[in-house]
Design goal:
The protein has about 400 residues and is an alpha/beta fold. It is built from eleven helices and twelve strands.
Length: about 400
Amino acid sequence: MRICKKIEELSKTAMEQIAPQFAKIDETAQYNTEKVMSIYKHHRVSDICFTATTGYGYNDKGREMMNRIFADIMNTPSAIVSTGFVSGTHAITAALFAALKPRQTLLSATGLPYDTLHNVIGISGENRGSLKEYEMPYAQVELKNDGSPDKKAIADYINANKVGAVFVQRSRGYSTRRALTVKEIGEICDCVHSIDKNINVVVDNCYGEFVEITEPGDVGADIIAGSLTKNPGGGLVPKGGYIAGRDDLVEAAANRLSAPGIGIRCGASPDGHRILYQGLFTAPHTVAQAMKTAVFASKLFELMGYDVSPKYDETRSDIIQMIRLGSGQLLERFCEGIQSASPIDSFVTPIASEMPGYDHPVIMAAGTFIQGSSIELSADAPMCEPYNVFLQGSLTFESGKKSVMIAADSIK
């Protein structure tokens, strides 16, 4: 893992300049860790909660308590945490169907959603079971040039149309816009609810959990969804997702996961729940490691002359770092560098390929212990102009820092 002298020098300079950001990240991690500790203590978590269940999973104490704990963390009345969700997209889909009724419009307040939701909504494709097939129209308003929500445009559309739910994507996805802060999500909630309290605000919270000291439930979101193989799983949970929000909406979403009338009252866990509890407990610390890695990458590549977003000292609301590499060759080399520094499959060469839910070939570097776990260090990008790479995760900053340096050396 030799690194050229120039990258070593730039890395040292970067570390000196990002010390204030690291201190802020540590403060947030400390706050969120104490928050989780307090909630675990309040609910009197014991090892009986780790017990496996079979069949229907009636009276599964571990499942029921985890739902209550997650609701408290998100500051919502109810929650469902389940390894039955195959991805964050699956959980978000259940939340959207819970928030809408036939012939009600879904309005995206943050522009075009992430690629994998296009088929869900019906923006592209003719898939059975999409919102479009259930006669739920789709519309969107764009963010302002500075990346903030356009509350006037949101209000104007709602006043002129029959809107059932407003969708908010917290993270940037594969777009160049910044992540929305929790405060800005709250502004959207206030705008929507001031017009009609019956319109549900649905938040895609992927990549944002524990980045700030508040969550969308603190600022009025009606239903929130995310993935357990991202932030809240702490790098330990092998699969699953969560939904948190109003009682009736969570129950409706659970009906999509199981069946109407069964909802959240069933669902066995043959492997037990220990890993869910342990992953959630370590999540604030793990998120801090990912944040530090992102800040370091931002500063190092800025020193190398690349455009980066966010800048190392900008406010962050997700764990994603975008680096504009400008060519397919550099994008490939960057991903090769990240892959070569990974603990798993370090010998593999990433190759761009077609993937379900994406419009362009996607290249992914992810030598992760859990397949697709983006709280572990990974880098991915659509293979198209302007050849931006999106870096996220890292279980430890020490490994993340070294991996980013190797990627930098690979493209130098």
